[in-house]
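for the recovery benchmark. tokens below, seq after
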């Protein structure tokens, strides 16, 4: 499987920033995860969880 390391690295930076309590670009995180679902089917299940985590309705529920 050909991984897209650039997208994975960008998403990892966003997730690490969120864990550290920093504000993050949730739209970008969701876009990256959606792209990785298509590019890397073997990690699609995990990326779908990220998509769900950063869905607009998830942000509303957390507020």
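predicted aa per position
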């Amino acid at each position: 499987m050909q991984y897209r390391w650039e997208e994975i690295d960008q998403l990892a930076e966003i997730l690490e920033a969120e864990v550290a309590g920093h504000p993050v670009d949730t739209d970008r995180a969701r876009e990256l995860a959606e792209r990785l679902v298509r590019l890397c089917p073997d990690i699609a299940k995990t990326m779908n969880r990220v998509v769900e985590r950063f869905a607009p309705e998830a942000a509303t529920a957390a507020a």
